[in-house]
Specification:
This protein is about 5% helix and about 50% strand. It has about 150 residues and is mainly beta. The chain has one domain (about 30-145). The chain has an eight-stranded antiparallel β-barrel with strand order 1-2-3-4-9-8-7-6. The longest helix is centred in the N-terminal third of the chain and has 5 residues, at about 5-10. The chain binds manganese (II) ion.
């Protein structure tokens, strides 16, 4: 996906968000950012292939095994975004406040075009998860019944 869509949506003279660069690094960090925009949601991001693969999760990342939540894929974000907290000004894309709700590392499990399995180890979240592609930008984020 790259960062073109991310950059097109933002005016970096107005927003405090990083313009960023795609990196070649193969990191294994994740972040959940609580984003109080026009609608409260949680942005779940996995560091993969030099960017942050991103999903907006309206009801938050599930903590209890067996719980599934809608996760809408959004544009790739630059790796630097993993540390971003702040206020996006009124009138700008995503206007509102962003705060880090959880962060940590993950280990990838099976990966296919339909499913992405991973294990999270964060401050709040830990355990086995799977993202299942349903249609278009829609995925289900499921907390599996398994140990990391
Ligand atoms: Mn958001």
């Amino acid at each position: 996906m790259g960062l073109e869509e991310y950059r097109q949506k933002r005016k970096f003279s107005k927003t405090p968000e990083p313009a960023g660069e795609a990196s070649s690094g193969e990191g294994n960090r994740f972040v959940v950012q609580k984003h109080q925009a026009s609608h409260l949601h949680y942005d779940f991001r996995l560091e993969m292939k030099g960017v942050l693969k991103s999903w907006a999760v309206p009801k938050g990342v599930p903590e209890a095994p067996g719980v599934r939540r809608l996760a809408v894929q959004t544009e790739d974000h630059p790796v630097e975004y993993i540390d971003f907290e702040g206020t996006i000004p009124e009138g700008e894309y995503g206007a509102g406040t962003v705060e880090i709700w959880d962060r940590g590392t993950f280990r990838l499990g099976r990966e296919s075009t339909k499913e992405l399995e991973f294990y999270l180890q964060g401050q709040k979240l830990s355990g086995a998860y799977v993202l299942v592609h349903t249609d278009g930008k829609n995925w289900l984020l499921i907390r599996r019944k398994g140990k990391p």
